[in-house]
Amino acid sequence: MEPEEEMARYSGAVCRFCRREGIKLMLKGARCYSTKCSLERRNYPPGQHGATRQRRRISDYGVRLRAKQQARRMFGIMERQFRRLFGEASRQSGATGENLVRLLECRLDNVTYRLGLAKSRVQARQLVRHGHVIVNGRKTNIGSFLVRPGDVVAVRPESCRRPYFKTLVEELDASAVPGWLSLDVAEMAARVVRQPNPEECEQNLQPQMIVEFYSR
What would the CATH number be for the domain defined by 7-104+203-214? Predict the structure, then answer.
């Protein structure tokens, strides 16, 4: 897969995305669970008149568009890359929606997040891009890299000596990791046991709506 178009190109406040979509996209890690969460304090769309304007009835097209935007923003993917990922999912056997969600889950930045090595997918992407994560012993700095069953994802040995990871190893919980991943806390490494099942994937997605959006 080609190097991804990073969401980092957007330099504004990401909390406005959660307010626009009306759900928590978990873009700020621990802040999303605190009282500082923007959606908790201002549960209305961003913009000058967001607090006063009435929410309009959303058309069928709008519902499908919002479902696609929620998924794209949650995983930090630009439109062109997301469309390319959808194309790959549609070429695979089985339900396209489930295939798409599975591909999103198997991204290296998401796996890093799922393992608890980062508090958010944004932070996980930074760890990957800065070379702190290796796959099968080789440094892989592309967040969109897709892991496969049998792959071993680990923190680079040199990075394990950094204060961040020294503190993190005391907080990692292997029991909190999805069943399709097997984490060895002491080694700061995990094996991809199998492909994730639908119930083990991100639940705040509407894959069928996304399929209908691109199939219109």
Answer: 1.10.1050.10
